[in-house]
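Shipment paperwork, digital attachment
Item: protein structure file
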Amino acid sequence: FSRVPSSLKAYRKALPEYLHYYNTERLHMGLGYQTPLERFQGLEF
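Attachment content:
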């Protein structure tokens, strides 16, 4: 994800798309190369 939105309207459209990518597709080294969603789903409450 390397695009920078050129307007507020473009930013508002891009933000939910980026958050979805960040939380469900991007692997995080600090989470043991899991996505935040995978890590959250592995927690027991």
